[in-house]
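Class, carefully examine what follows:
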Amino acid sequence: MAPRLDLDGFRDGRISVVRAVRYDTADGMKTSEASNPGSQPGGWRTRDGRLWFTTQKGVVVVDPRHLQHNERIPPVVIEEVVADGARLSPAPGLRIAAGKDKVEFHYTCLSLSVPSRVRFQVQLEGYDRDWVDADARRVAYYTNLPPGHYRFRVIAANDDGVWNREGASLSFVLLPHFYQTAWFRGALGVLFLLAALAGQRLYTRRLRARAAELARMVGERTRDLQTQKSFLQQVIDMTPNHIFVKDLEGRFTLVNRTLAEAHCRRIEDLIGKTAEEFIPDAGVAKNLRHEDLEVIRTSREQFLAEAKLTTATGQVRWLQLVKCPLFDQNGKVSQVLGVGTDITQLRATKEAAESASRAKSEFLANMSHEIRTPMNGILGMTELALDTELTAEQREYLELVRSSGEALLSVIGDILDSPKSRLASWISILSPFRCASAWRTASGRWPCGPIRRVWSLPATSSLACRRK
């Protein structure tokens, strides 16, 4: 049965739930099953207002004017507490031993009208966020409860829905294990903090030791590098060549003493500077930079036969430059190495030698005419003398003079006219030989008397004739 107001409100949509009163065998009915739907009508209202319903075991009559309501608030009692099978008295200040994580609360409600219709709601404060509907169950189960302070509450409603909102409650403490206590956690935290501090100190000590070791290794490497650099500097300072190393921007990273002295500067004054900063001739500095860029671009060696260099004092020097690329670990050009040989003296010597060669050539050209003219005169007079009447001995002497003159004229021609007659090209003949054999081969005759004249050929080589 339901109140008319609830039915009207549900019909009009004002409420969504209708409060109904249920009747079953607990109210005196022989059965709660209605009659067969085929038997109609299933219910009837008589003139006196009573309601008649057909069931499987007879007719049930309800008089709405004489319905009984249980308005008594039912008392609620917590009977006992069971922790892991151990029964405990629900006394105030209950303390449950540690490890008892399975707790049962047995409770009941004193409503004797229809006990089966009593409803319960429970809440464990500190664990449940809201009330839990337990329906007619009279036991509440909790497992795996963490240690702490709790309060178990239970409320109940009688068969007519009258609630006891105060209900019954029980405060208790679930004791923790020693490792779950605050002091243990605090001690554990302190131990962890101390361990972390000790670990940090140990780690710091290792880092410092590692840093000291690295500093020592770096110091040794630095000293080795400084020693090698000093040794390299001493080596390149001993060479008369101009040696330098430039980076990709054209700044000097290494120079030797010869190059620094050529510009009247210290080595420290040139490191980190470019050629444009101390070479007075801007054109020369620009050409040098262009050659550096060409080495970087092509990654190949560049050779410059002659390079004019004007020092800070205005002195002109001539260098023969060789520039080659230096590569880094990735195979890219990182620096440019240059070696310059001072050829100023060699160039002056070359110019002097060329001047002397030209003077020699002019001298030999003049001597060719001055020597050949008398020889041709001697040969001509000899030919004329041979055409006259002569004795056999006179003719033999004149023939010897003519052949000797022709041979001498041929030798003079070779000396004066041959391109190989330059002073530097003559080969010295140091071994002595007999002139008699040479003359016998040339003329087929041996002249009377010893040869008293020594023929000396010009230049560094000499051809000496003497008779032993």
Observations:
- The radius of gyration is 68 Å.
